[in-house]
Design brief:
- This is Protein Lines N-terminal domain-containing protein.
- InterPro entries: LINES_N (IPR032794), Protein_Lines (IPR024875).
- The chain is 74% helix and 0% strand.
- By secondary structure, it is mainly alpha-helical.
- The protein folds into 2 domains: 222 residues; 226 residues, no CATH class.
- It is elongated.
């Protein structure tokens, strides 16, 4: 088999034969091949062949495809058993986890096409793999052990697997016949929340970034007050660790264009909106006896931010991190405006939760990143030149028109907040304030009215 991997892969790709895939799956000593072969190219081709076997779907040969499906389900169940009953980490463990990633990713691609027909799910090995990870009795202890004892690159496939399961659960939530599986998935993942938060400080950047994203997904789709409090507690630790370890030189190195390219890549705008809701929805949870504990965590963030700003200007850093890019700067303001709008709406219509809403607004105001503060700083960065803002209004490259119309309505509704922030610019900047009030905004509003 090891001498004919390339030939087998080519033959399977060409024929798309379930019978050939079944024969290769059953007759090949996969574990021995993967463990004993030191040729990286051959290992790569072997895993490619396994991936092809696991994702092949030939509806023209229904009977053979059914046999292949049953064989794959048995094989994948044994695979998870093999992984979770052998705590010693080997290169084969990484290869197996990569295979799990490919299988679940392929399943996600087909979830929407399966409608509510349970047989379609059962026939896909990705669904079997998902259920095996969720319900195998060895899995929880194995993941806890790995998250505690491994670090760096070894954790990358584990965190990616958790992300894959989270994404699959998110998609299954939209199907009435699979909502219970999705809920079980979120419960299963949330049991690892503490360990996942610890990974924020992992030395490997992929582990750190993916673990942050994973916590965001957990809170978005399955959260309670205790989980929010846990995340805030770790966030306080995280920010303090960054402050101790992150030098000023490292911070400003992030402002280089090659370090901020990820800001300009295409992303799903829904991500911003969901993140806003995650933060704001803290105020709408039933706080009960946990109110003071949660408030304490929030206050720690305020105190730390104030201490940090003794040496750094948070607005300068925010706009620098956005690479002085107009689109990103506008999106930042739009996100914060949306958050304040929802906070104010919650305060006015849900008096029972008004205390927590006020505290969250107080935190954001103390940090200095409210809508008025961001907009005034943005104006100062543009030199109070109304023509630049008019160019942004007319451009289709940013959401400035959407933001500005909403912002004017916000100022109209809460004029005292806008006036207060203008006055806070100080007596020595009266000329700037007058220009903002009488010239800049007036001309822009005239353009909008026309």
């Amino acid at each position: 088999m090891t001498d004919n991997i390339s030939h087998s892969l080519y033959a399977l790709n060409s024929s798309q034969s379930p019978n050939l895939a079944l024969r290769l799956l059953n007759d090949s000593p996969w574990e021995r091949i993967l463990q004993n072969d030191d040729d990286p190219f051959k290992l790569y081709m072997t895993t490619r062949l396994l991936q092809q076997i696991m994702t092949l779907n030939n509806t023209n040969e229904a009977t053979a495809q059914q046999e292949l499906c049953r064989a794959r389900q048995l094989w994948i169940s044994q695979l998870v058993e093999t992984i979770t009953t052998h705590p010693r980490w080997t290169p084969v463990t990484t290869l197996y986890l990569d295979l799990c990633h490919i299988i679940i990713k392929d399943y996600r691609k087909h979830i929407d096409d399966m409608d509510d027909d349970d047989n379609n799910d059962k026939n896909h090995v990705g669904y079997t793999l998902l259920l095996t990870w969720l319900y195998n009795e060895n899995v929880f202890g194995w993941i806890q052990y790995v998250l505690k004892t491994r670090q760096g690159i070894d954790l990358v496939p584990v965190v990616i697997l958790l992300m894959d399961i989270s994404k699959a659960c998110k998609m299954l939530m939209e199907r009435s016949d699979k909502n219970d599986v999705a809920q079980e998935g979120w419960i299963w993942i949330s049991r690892h929340l503490n360990q996942i938060c610890v990974l924020w400080l992992d030395p490997h950047v992929t582990v750190a970034r993916r673990s942050l994203a994973l916590v965001g997904m957990i809170l978005r789709y399955y959260r309670n007050l205790e989980m929010i409090q846990t995340v805030l507690s770790f966030f306080v630790i995280y920010t303090k660790e960054l402050h101790q370890r992150f030098t000023r030189e490292q911070l400003y190195a992030l402002f280089d264009s090659e370090r901020t390219e990820f800001f300009y890549s295409t992303i799903d705008d829904q991500t911003y909106e969901e993140d806003e809701r995650d933060v704001v929805d803290i105020s709408s949870d039933d706080t009960g006896d946990k109110d003071e504990a949660l408030s304490h965590q929030l206050q720690e963030l305020v105190d730390y931010s104030i201490l940090y700003q003794e040496t750094e200007n948070i607005l300068e850093i925010l706009f620098e991190l956005h690479g002085n890019n107009d689109e990103d700067a506008v999106n930042l303001q739009l996100d914060m405006l949306s958050m304040y709008e929802k906070l104010n709406n919650n305060f006015e219509h849900n008096k029972a939760q008004s205390s927590m809403t006020v505290r969250i607004k107080h935190i954001l105001d103390k940090i200095g990143i409210g809508p008025n503060q961001l907009f005034l700083f943005f104006c100062r960065r543009t030199g109070m030149d109304h023509s630049l803002l008019i160019d942004l209004l007319l451009s289709n490259e940013t959401e400035f028109l959407l933001f500005f119309v909403r912002y004017l309505k916000y100022v109209e509704r809460y004029p005292q907040d806008f006036t207060r922030e203008c006055n806070l610019l100080g007596d020595d900047q009266e000329e700037v304030v007058d220009m903002l009030r009488s010239v800049m905004l007036a001309k822009i509003i005239n353009i909008l009215e026309k």
